[in-house]
């Protein structure tokens, strides 16, 4: 049973369907591992084991009756602590929301539960989801699986750690500027950033609603496809026959994304591209100058909306927040309305230019992060280092959010180094099939 903790979610689901795995025994295996794990309190903000146990029992009854609701019916997962859970505190990692008790579940949680996902608990995160690092002295800072003294990546930091440490079969997080992909990359997982509007944000604590998205963190592309299906209540993308890169054409993004790469991510990226070429892919270097303006104005676009949502609360009780996070929000108070509107108009034009430029490619490639997980102590001690590392961490992933794309990060085989594949808006099915082929090539 201990082996179950390290299996893919899809394999667990198939075991349940075949009568080889009892959903209640599976749940209890994870519950026991969580309760005895030395890093539990740095990963889970709170557990929902009583509810999860009832969900597992219902999944067992459905399996015995041959009435399973999805391929993942009965599989235990974690939920980032910004998805409302009726009767369970949802605080989004912030002192501003301490003790906040929702009366109803988030829509995506309701759908996931209806499809048979079994909840283990709520995971720690960057405060109000406004950091790519995962550092959170207000609640807890989850560890990277490759270095317990380093951050896990944010803002879905505990989500990634829950899977990487074998304390959940998959996790549900959110991605506004990279918050699914960064922690997935730093914990050697697969992360799917969905297109804005693909999955409901109802009942989700917002950061910047025009960019906020919901997405899974998993052990494989196949699991990401199954989780997406479960979260939207639909048939998952069929990945059959997707494992061949011959004839695939990729754009290697040279604008911004390859600047200032640290040695390890740079080497991992080169090795990954070599494997893709060896598997038959064509890789073309592509410059995209249209992203330079939006990347320079990202602070305007994000902080203005974030301040519009949270400014009143922060003005009243900002002392309850981690200072660097509070200061990021406060930057939005200084942006005139006309500047914000003009920045959005330029972003929309850039999206059209990007779509035209990348139309002939199966995916756009870049390193998921230019850096490795920084040490917790240094981030706490050096303010300038915190700011520069946070901005660098989110630089490449933010491209996908600004351009409004579906995107996947894959492990490269080097610890905490990910490969990003960016697709098109609402192109989740296509990018998952391409990512499955790339995943196979990287594992060869």
TrEMBL record:
Residue ranges occupied by any Amidase domain in the UniProt entry: 25-432
Which is one GO molecular function term here?
catalytic activity
Q: Which Gene3D superfamilies match?
A: Amidase signature (AS) domain
- Which Pfam families did the record assign? Amidase
The record's listing under InterPro entries reads: Amidase (IPR000120), Amidase_CS (IPR020556), Amidase_dom (IPR023631), AS_sf (IPR036928)
Please give the name of this protein. Amidase
